[in-house]
Amino acid sequence: MNYGRFAAVYDDLMEDIPYEQYVEWIAETMRSGSVLDLACGTGVLSELMAELGYEVTASDLSADMLTVAQKRFKESELDIPVLQLSMDNLEGLEGFDAVTIAIDSLNYLATEAQVTKTFDQVYAALKPGGYFFFDVHSVFKVDEIFMNSPFVYDGEDLAYMWHTEKGSSPHSVIHDLTFFVREGWMFERFEETHEQRTFSVESYKRWLAEAGFTVESVTADFTADAPSDESERIFFRAKK
What we know:
By secondary structure, the chain is of the alpha/beta class. It folds into two domains: 2-137 and 199-239, Rossmann fold (3-Layer(aba) Sandwich), CATH 3.40.50; 141-196, S-adenosyl-L-methionine-dependent methyltransferases (N-terminal domain of TfIIb, Single Sheet). It is 29% helix and 35% strand. It is built from seven helices and eleven strands. Strands 3-2-1-4-5-11-10 form a seven-stranded mixed beta sheet, with helices on both faces. A four-stranded antiparallel beta sheet has the order 6-7-8-9, covered by helices on one side. Helix 3 links the parallel strand 1 (34-38) and strand 2 (55-60). The two termini are 33 Å apart.
């Protein structure tokens, strides 16, 4: 997928994500150390972690996302290495104190095999005692909330229409987005299609255990509370 135009508007779409709370969640467990930020997107979380003193390596499959991230790091005068790689292929990476896959990026993996391979790869990339932090959409959000589309946003320089439909796999969703981005006195239109899939909490816990992890906490919606039937975002902290 070409993320060129999407990368340019990504931060506007994610402006409601409380990245600071994500960093606080990590800091509750570890105050320093090396972190591999997988599927880093435009590098917002990587930047915040680096500013707090973590030794961050940022990675993403999209060269366009990494271009935006590198610009961010340069402007912030942060020395953050970037790698272009898939989260399920981390061959040669090792010795990290923590690995993050933030903001439902794991849900872009379409199959159980891809998820379990990713867990195996993350396990190998961590030091003994290292931590794995990630979040996913809940089954409830994918099956129920996302099906209440269309969703519409109308801003001064960006507008979009977001339609959803069920994907071909259980607990999957296809997002069809039409963007209108201001270019001078005109708006440029472009379209994106994304597909995400999630699995049950118990499935993720089982696959983590099979990879060798100890699951230390499962919480919901940026709180310390356990997930309920109507939680929307599930957070996992696992230890090697």
